[in-house]
């Protein structure tokens, strides 16, 4: 359907998905400026019966109304429009540019507990809003969760606007059927009776998938049909218990609301639990800690500033100015970190500190001042990293996070996200300062287990492309091959741009060598006065711009030299000798040919004389009356008074 137009408005770009309920398209809205992208879901009822269509239409409008309300949440795509056309129903929703969580999950790559916890909290916040509106999603799965590339925010998609209606039922009655995806559907949903906890179950299976790398359809099951997974994951007891309760087979034994899950998650130590820490201590110094004789006492975190710790090397004693005061952590100086120690059983912990503190203080002075890292300490450090990131103090954030990582391997899981965020922030800052080489080196430090990995990968490729572009300019315009190759070396091998950059750099080196030889030959010819040869050689260089300019200049100089050449001196030519007399011409009589008789050309005969036709002379006719005689005219020759009559 690509290229077609829906409702004279939405230009279809491609088909995103197709199933039994309908088809999903990616399209552009041609009625809006810049033609923004949108997602169109075409829902096709499985019957043309008028009563069936009427029920489908009513449910479609009802579900569209619900989607309109759900779209008010910032992590749910907005419903832009809905309409009916030719007995098909269409929903138009906001397009989210991102990648699905399914692309982040892999059997070969497990999520750290910190990432799972952050993911669950983010998704549960969305589900709480959905459930508060009385809506059950019924199809929570990785493909319906997408992480937006711009800010790594998770969005919940595909609510299934219309429930399937069975046309085989009498009077086209509405029926509830099993809607969902195998592996993520609990028993009650398979039976067609979903519950709010059904969505919680599905989300829990995704969390287990992330921790174990095992797909839900491949989960091991107990005799009671409960999921067996903890032996395949590195997870704290608290987190394991929450996930276990989220995926109980009996929905009545699960969490009955999202709020309950969120409340328990808030109580989970950030990855390193007390049990893990105790095990780590016991494994490190079994002769100093006797778990059976140590009195149980709630752990607490006591902050000690470096000034309050003193060491007596003769007795290996450590004193504190006031061990009863729990001072709040203070902001450490740049390049240092606060000193924490955990207190458990009074007697045993003091014995432990007597041995540890003298050496730890000495070592800590050079590596940031960390003594022992407990759950609360790591949580505070994570909060401090987030605070430093918010203040754009990326260098301090990185120093603090890396120091914590070197002190405690278990800190990796909890500090992975905030430290990766600082790496990314520092890289962006370097890129803004046009220090692209340093930026790409910094962004490669972002862990592939963090939620910022995909954004970091995108930035890495973008900045690597800019480095390649800069290297290309150094070669083509400046002619500095050495600087261009140095730029290529800055592109990490993990970038998709690296292969293209290496291929171009090889071409640059070959062209540079060839052009250098041609320019050398052209200059030599010009110097030796062989301007025509210099021009011919220089014309062979067509690119890049740097070498083309040099070649053009050589041609210009050669043409100028040709124009300024002095006129050549005339060469002496001996006078032309007189031509020798030749023999007189021999008389050649004219060639006479026998006359050939030519008969005269006869013309037309002369015209025959024809006398004019004569007519009879006219007959005289006498006048009818004779003419009167002429009268004598008397002239009066004496006019006047003297004349007499």
Q: What does this entry look like structurally?
A:
- Pfam families: Pkinase (PF00069).
- One of its GO terms (molecular function) is ATP binding.
- Keywords: ATP-binding, Kinase, Nucleotide-binding, Serine/threonine-protein kinase, Transferase.
- It comes from Acaryochloris marina (strain MBIC 11017).
- This protein is an alpha+beta fold.
- It has 4 domains: 90 residues, 2-Layer Sandwich (Phosphorylase Kinase, domain 1), CATH 3.30.200; 161 residues, Orthogonal Bundle (Transferase(Phosphotransferase), domain 1); 147 residues, no CATH class; 103 residues, no CATH class.
- 42% of the residues lie in helices and 11% in strands.
- The protein is built from 18 helices and 15 strands.
- It has a 6-stranded antiparallel sheet, covered by helices on one side.
- Strand 1 and strand 2 form a beta hairpin.
- The longest helix is centred in the last third of the chain and has 31 residues.
- The termini are far apart.
Q: What is the level 1 CATH name of the largest domain? A: Mainly Alpha
Distance between the termini: 144 Å
Question: Which structural class is indicated by helix and strand composition?
Answer: alpha+beta
CATH architecture title of the largest domain: Orthogonal Bundle
Characterize the quaternary organization of these chains: single chain
The number of distinct helices, counting runs of at least 4 residues, comes to 18
Lateral strand order in the biggest sheet: 1-2-3-4-6-5
The general outline is elongated
* Tally of distinct domains: 4
Question: How does the major sheet shape up?
Answer: 6 strands, antiparallel
The CATH superfamily of the largest domain is identified as Transferase(Phosphotransferase) domain 1
Helix content: 40-55%
Percent of residues in beta strands: 5-15%
**CATH fold group of the largest domain:** Transferase(Phosphotransferase), domain 1
- Show unreliable segments: 161-176, 272-373
Region (Disordered): 291-338, 565-645
Biased composition (Polar residues): 301-326
Catalytic activity: L-seryl-[protein] + ATP = O-phospho-L-seryl-[protein] + ADP + H(+); L-threonyl-[protein] + ATP = O-phospho-L-threonyl-[protein] + ADP + H(+)
Organism: Acaryochloris marina (strain MBIC 11017)
